[in-house]
């Protein structure tokens, strides 16, 4: 829980103020049995009504002071815990955003969601409990033991037997419960993963009538979570009754021994009442301490999971003396680039890539599935770092650039169109937050999205469902393209982003980009050969190696891989723009 030091420094004044009020409350609770003992042994025994009334007034004042302490302690504990939870959740979210893809590949998205929500809540509850009962319980227990010894040291010796037994039970509950609650959190990760997959793919599930399969899959994970949780709670539940039994046995021993001593005139009745009250407070305190350790076990398991993310070292930090990308030209150069994903074995994903793409040029990248196309363009915005060689913007390695500034110069249209819940105009303005309506419409027209957007009753104010579920695949891709265009990037990367668009519209989009965004350095990654046939240069990748580079006509003659792709998609007698390409 080392990361909590930061928040302790931030909230320590409020935290310790809450503890101060808690001390007032606990002190008042400890004084009440002693006052009651005096009322019985002095006022009642001597039939002194004035003494009884006076001590009753004192007792009421003590009770009022305790209630006041409890009131302010509750206010402060709630304030601190809620602010702590919000800050921790915010810091965790910012940390996740700052991590590279290499870092994020270590965590499943469902696990990160659990850590942001469930795990942070466990830690937050523990912090709040610390200011409410977790400090109060030990104070009451220790204070009651001290007061019991002050009343009658011989009878209080019973506690010497009781307390070590209870301490042993608490220690065992902590040792046994910790690994069990770590398993519980992992099963929550699994539930979140299955739920997320089902909800994101619900149309596929219904289309293939796999509802029963998904129910069984969720049911299995749900039963596993229930079993693991029940096991953890069952094991922990053994200790609380054990503690209660031990303390109640102590109360019986006190009543038996105290009654004997009262008969012998060695002890007063009021002391027995006070002693019983202190033992009851000890019982309540030890029960709360048991709950404290149960909560601590869960908070510890959760804090370690949160710490795993917060302590993750970014594998791609910005250089200390970062170069501003704005001062550079946007020629993109790959020099002897090789790349492997962390932890991967075998041949690198990319090997010895050499390429230069100048402003105003469009480079098409084509190859079979798994040939390394997306991996290659992901190195330009530095989503991953090269294993060897370098990727340069101008003459500067991207690893030496200011990361934020570098990515501000790049717009990406990803393979999978990602749209966010909100209006169409909000989604387009993701590319440029302060864009006006005219800029939004211009970008939509360039992406050939304006016509279908204008056909909606609400136009650009049409609300999109999660992931843009109320749009077709081609419509989502065109909004994604508009989002990239409005940014007016110097480098545009289109990663198979027109696969759901018909070839006529695709050609129109390509011509619009070429005409209106002449300054761009553009990369088009595609599976469809018609998407790259008319680019300035075509790169053919095969198993991570460039096996062909040139224009369409050149590659038809010189590159077997390109020719095979052309044959499979266009046909043996394909004719394009009057150029015959017989295979």
How are the SSEs ordered, and which strands pair?
Layout: H1 4-44, H2 49-98, H3 101-104, H4 109-134, H5 136-151, H6 153-156, H7 158-200, H8 202-207, H9 211-263, H10 269-310, E1 332-339, E2 350-357, E3 362-367, H11 373-378, E4 388-393, E5 396-397, H12 403-408, E6 410-413, E7 422-423, H13 424-428, H14 437-446, H15 450-455, E8 463-464, H16 473-485, E9 491-495, H17 503-516, E10 521-526, E11 537-542, E12 545-550, H18 552-558, H19 560-569, E13 575-576, E14 579-580
Parallel strand pairs: 3-10, 3-11, 6-9, 9-10
Antiparallel strand pairs: 1-2, 1-4, 4-5, 7-8, 11-12, 13-14
CATH architecture of the largest domain: Up-down Bundle
The helix fraction, in percent, is 55-70%
Strand order of the largest sheet: 6-9-10-3-11-12
- At CATH level 3, the topology of the largest domain is ABC transporter transmembrane region fold
Summarize the structure.
The chain is an alpha/beta fold. The chain is 62% helix and 11% strand. The strands form four sheets. Strands 6-9-10-3-11-12 form a six-stranded mixed β-sheet. A four-stranded antiparallel β-sheet has the order 2-1-4-5, with no helix packed on it. Strands 7-8 form a two-stranded antiparallel ribbon.
What would the keywords be for this entry?
583 residues; alpha/beta; ABC transporter transmembrane region fold; Rossmann fold; 3 domains; six-stranded mixed sheet; four-stranded antiparallel sheet
Overall description:
With 583 residues, the protein is an alpha/beta fold. The chain has three domains: 307 residues, ABC transporter transmembrane region fold; 181 residues, Rossmann fold; 73 residues, 3-Layer(aba) Sandwich (Rossmann fold). It contains 19 helices and 14 strands. A six-stranded mixed beta sheet has the order 6-9-10-3-11-12. The chain has a four-stranded antiparallel beta sheet with strand order 2-1-4-5, with no helix packed on it. A hairpin with a 2-residue loop joins strand 13 and strand 14. Helix 1 packs antiparallel against helix 2. The longest helix has 53 residues. The radius of gyration is 35 Å and the shape is elongated. The C terminus is likely disordered.
